[in-house]
Description:
11 strands; CXXC_Zn-binding_euk; CXXC motif containing zinc binding protein; zinc; zinc ion binding; metal-binding
Amino acid sequence: MGRIGLQLRATLENITRLRAEGEDFRWYLKDSAPLKGGRGSATMVQKCKLCSRENSIDILSQTIKPYNAEDSEKFKTIVEFECRGLEPVDFQPQAGFAAEGAESGTPFNDINLLEKDWNDYDEKTKESVGIYEVTHRFVKC
């Protein structure tokens, strides 16, 4: 399979540096049926019931990048996965994202993108902030 990148696209309002927060961030992926096997350590390992081969997806932590204000309304790769026998086909963003006010730097933690939209209020700038129309796609790297 090789490397697969998760690209995010969203409309950001007065917010920047949207990112997966913490080393234990959960990437909610749905994968395709196992095709071929691989060996070694990985973030997720799944054994095929038919052929007993181990298939895996490993999060390449050095590839995790924030989605910034200047990326708004464009697709940007925010993480890459090393895939052996499995391929992600869907991503469900949930809680655990963080961001900051574009002008103020105000931290916003534990952002939940399950509904594909999120909004709040930045007390420092007296403006609403938000993340809207969250979509994604996978690309081969």
